[in-house]
Predict the 3D structure of the following.
Amino acid sequence: MKVAIVGSGYVGLVSGACFADFGHSVVCVDKDVAKIDALSRGEIPIFEPGLDGLVAENVAAKRLSFTTELGDAAREAEAVFIAVGTPSRRGDGFADLSYVYAAAEEIARSISGYTVIVNKSTVPVGTGAEVEAIIRKARPDADFSVASNPEFLREGAAIEDFKRPDRVVVGAEDDRARDMMRELYRPLFINETPILFTNRATSELIKYAANAFLATKITFINEIADLSERVGADVQEVARGIGLDGRIGAKFLHAGPGYGGSCFPKDTLALVRTAQSAGAPTKIVEAVVEINDRRKRQMAERIIRACGGSVEGKTVAILGLTFKPNTDDMRDAPALEIIPALIAAGAKVRGFDPAGMEEARALLGDVVFCEGPYDAMDGADVVVLLTEWDEFRALDFVRMKELLKSPVFVDLRNVYRPEKMRELGFDYQSIGRPGPQLADGASSE
């Protein structure tokens, strides 16, 4: 099949490369001339394991190409995907659909013959109907369908998620669109991937409901972590105990500094606003948003308490800046709340991240960016493990103690065992596990 993808960001580029690898002919379109030029030279603008090789292979096989001109790509395509950004709108938290609607108008001017226009962007319920209305108004003569096909890609594992998904969701209102989408995903049939066909509104809501539920699991276990600290329980064992229940499952039950990234923050907020507008408030999701925002600020307070109640004039080493490992994505990362709060409290911050340094430099001022974890620790009063990159999972503790002014280690991802760290002489503090420090600073011993 011939496919055009409008938007060559994270979702568009991964989807385009994977569809091309399925054997389809794919053109990725973007208005950013510098980005398209870079992609044409084989330079990948995002960090995603395996993506550079996948793009190179399919460009070489002439199944994948890049352009700034939507017209020709859309005219030739049987399916045109809209994969542009839908950030939170300033002021009210609704999803900003201006890029989606602009893409729809441009697509309308270009399509020729029967075409399926597919919303791959995360959009509120009703967006597919609005896209259809925009195209119908611009081109009353056009033969087309509008479908919803939400993405469920985890940054850092996106290619695996696309090629071996738990499910594919397609929202369509007619058989022609369903048949086209079934053919597009035919290579997944060999893996017996469930393909769920629904109407558009259901498909659109599935995406928001899925992300809100996962965000709720994260927020739930974070609150249980705070309770665990107060009563002397171990949140990791609590998570294991409830995660073994097949009705609950173990995924997303890892206590930490709060969720971030490109999806959960904006999607939970958009769902809240959509639900409020529909007269059916989602009180649980509203609480999740509020608690998660507060939790990031609380992590800075936790670090300050670990330093004796003040970081004035002290140096804090931060290991990991991105919202999760295996990505360079800094969007809504806990670091963006924690580090400014530490600086405002008088701290000097030294930071290192294996992939996110360039993004972090653009977003974080007054931070000394270092060449590695030990460079960041050199002369620091406390080290904070903020993102659980693999290279932070086997640190040299002898070297750490030599570099640090004081052996204070705040592990916000529970990577290490408390008893072992204390045996090694560290003042070690983690999340929701028995130890000398409670959430409010009171001693448990």
